[in-house]
Amino acid sequence: MTDQLGTLLRRLRRQAGLTQEQLAERSGVSVRTIRRLETGKSTDHRLGTVNLLADALDLGQEERRLLAALLAKAQGGATSEAAAPEAVRAAPVPSEADTEADTEPQSDTEGEGDTEGDTDAEPAPPPFTAPAPLPVHGELAEAVEELAREIRRRWRREEEQRRVHDPFPLPVRWQQVPAGLTDRSENIQRLGPGAVPRQVDLSGDLRSVAEVYRRISSGRLVILGRAGSGKSILTIRFVLDVLEGRTAPGRVPVIFSLGSWDPSSTDLRDWMIGRLLRDHPHLARRSPGGSTLAAAMVDADLILPVLDGFDEIAEGLRREALEALNAISLPLVLTSRRAEFAEAVQAAHAPLVWAAGIELADLTLDNLAGYLPRTARAVGHGQAAGDRGGRPLWDPVLDELRARETPGGANLAAVLTTPLMVILARTMYSEAPDRDPAELLDTARFPSAHSLEDHLLAGFVPAVYRHRVPDQVAGGSQRRQRGWDPERAQQWLGYLAHHLVRHDVDQQDLAWWRISDSLRRSTRIIAVVLATALSITLADWLVFALSSPVDSGEILLQGALMGPVAGLAFGCVYAVVMVAYRSGPAFEPTRVRLRLPGRQFGGGRRTLRTFARRFGDGLLGGSVMGVGCACALALERALYPGLPLTNPQVIEATLINMVCFGLIFGLAAGLVFGLVAALEAPVDVTSAATPVSLLSANRATVGRQVLVLAPLFTLAIAGAGRLVVDLLQGSLGPLNWGLSAGLFIGAVGGIGGAVSYALAFTAWGQWVVLSRIWLPLTGKLPWDTVAFLEDAYQRGVLRQTGAVYQFRHVRLQHHLGRTFRERQAKYRPASFPTARNDST
Q: Which of 68, 199, 321, 830 has its CA 20 to 30 A from that of 212?
């Protein structure tokens, strides 16, 4: 019952929109106590503590009744369910000593023996089996099945894209991990004191990984292996096998790339929910309990996390990550390189609790002899497939590897022990009619195993770009053959790999909305200023050309002045947002749509808080824009009628305009953004997001938002102007705000402001300004970036993981990034002596 109590507390906290820290501040209960209650690690529950949490969450009668019932059962049934609410309400507020007792750390053997302060000894539990999730029905059950189908479809496609079964999967075998890196057998089987653990056979290969996992009672498995040993392929096969054998509703295996998890700031469950929402937007719909479907799935333990790449977590966070994983009890699969995992275990003084472990073994010479000859299919000039000069392509190499009599053979034998290197060798030699793999034995060119690995990594991209691949359109039909220059393609891929190094931490997720993050802040601000200045200038010219009878010279002058000043004002707002974040504004893809009032207004205080926050942001940003508009009018009067800026009347008029326009634009922007927030609803998407589909959906969503914001801004500015002028008419002297003038200014502000907002403060707008225009102008990326990324995916350089791309392997990513930085350092000063390097 402890786990059920913790799950309920966590769900109630999230429904209230509170973090653990915020709940601690409201209730006076320590964060550590809340965390122990939610994770089920606290077995000595105090009624007063739970009462404080219930008050802080503002729970209703029914929620208190359920909470108290679970609390009573967790304490051994001391309180009846009928009397539960009264017991909770009558519970005394805990004293300082009680609170200290709640936060007292428990021993490492908690739950297996007597705990200090316990008065009732519990009998030894029976052999443990990871419990199945509780049955679900209705919309949640349908969402679970839809998620399972989509994940199966996605990873089948990924296996095909990686050609795992061509001609057959490389053998991936493993051995049991040494005892120091895994938990004790009796803990893995969750046995009681004195129980003797049974012998569990964990041997197997790629075809039996799901079967091996089912032998583990705790449902926790660690998969270790060195770089390129096949961990990712093994996890994909594991997910597909689990889904194929899924005959009844149960946990859905989902692969999460751990490199983006920061355990110091984000709870694992919250992070998993965020990844689910990113990759499966339809899970943002609300469940019957009020939370999103993604949160409901995680809270109901309907997700089996397959946590890929523990070693990709920042080095200083691995110990904290392991401790966070040890604080939860849900089944999971974790992959990592052995050295990084061993360091975390040593630092945390504990392995992953309840977890068994396997370590992937190296490929053997027999594996190579059975695989490589069957990949050689190049035919030309009357030769048979795989036949060069009358002898099969790989035979001389395999003979040398068997003999191991030369340094070249020894080096190559050491390299071709991982699936990654074998696949690279296959791509460079088996699929190229003009390459001979015997050159890999040349010790003059490749004196060491490391130089051989660098050669294979360096040759992969040119090898896959030596031929053209067909473009794909909807439905899978082919359009035309596309080719990219291999050298330019390698340069662009190198920039993308370099971009993934942020704050000295290697990221794996190549998200289209984060590609521009490696640009300097000043560069991004300049680009936004130019883009918004152009949009407002064009809007000014358009509106005044269509509706004003004045001559064209005045129109051009006004637009030429208004645009740059307003663009500079937008740049100021953008710069403030940039400074507020360590690495720039975290613009995420838009996952909302606008709809007429309905159930979305039932959010009560949450909707009101959202409105207030958006109103405040709009008020601040709009005020800055109003001040910029007043300055533009002052410049116009100085240049066109010839009034000097130092004229006292001009200064007075400018100050009055600053106050008035600041209030007008601020009130209008605050009202519009607050109103739009109340009209937002999750995007109704019934399939998983891919990078291209998410980009396309965001383009359409932002376009609709502009069409809504432009008229709303126009009317709001005109109405706010009338209100502000009426209120300040006496105190600031005679003010003029006619209907036509108000509509003119409102239209310019509405059209230009809506477009500028879309370009500066949405993920799609930033993509257009920085990744589709600025970076191609500087040569960092091609003009058709989307087509290039999709082409790299089709060629096998990139892979898709939900809504983001990743490089096929992290070693390839590191090699391309390092090569890009070396070329930049070597060639940039000679080619561009005065240019600033925006990519560092």
A: 321
Residue 498 lies in a domain: no
Q: What is the pLDDT of residue 746?
A: 82
pLDDT value at position 775?
A: 92
229 in any annotated domain: yes
Query: Does 547 fall in a domain?
Result: yes
Mean pLDDT across 401-428: 90
- Give 515-566 as a DSSP string: GGGGS-HHHHHHHHHHHHHHHHHHHHHHHHHHH--S-HHHHHHHHHHHHHHH
Decide: residue 261, CB within 10 A, 0-12 exposed, 13-18 middle, 19+ buried. buried
319 shares its domain with 413: no
559 and 659 inside one domain? yes
Whether 744 maps to a domain, the answer reads yes
Closest by CA position to 808, among listed 307, 156, 232, 153: 232
Residue 696 domain boundaries: 521-584+596-680+692-770
The alpha carbon of residue 206 and the mean position of all alpha carbons in its chain are separated, in whole angstroms, by: 28
**Whether 522 contacts 575, CB under 8 Å:** no
Per-residue pLDDT reduced to its tens digit, 156-207: 988 888 888 888 888 888 988 988 899 999 999 888 888 888 888 888 888 8
SS (H, E, C) 232-263: HHHHHHHHHHHHHCCCCCCCEEEEEEHHHCCC
3-state DSSP assignment of residue 593 = strand
Domain match, 167 and 265 both: yes
Do residues 266 and 376 both lie within one domain? no
- Amino acid of residue 600: Q
Q: How many domains does the chain have?
A: 4
- Burial-class residue 571 by CB neighbours within 10 Å (0-12, 13-18, 19+): buried
Residues 267 and 234 in one domain: yes
Amino acid symbol at 596: L
Look up residue 128 and give its amino acid: F
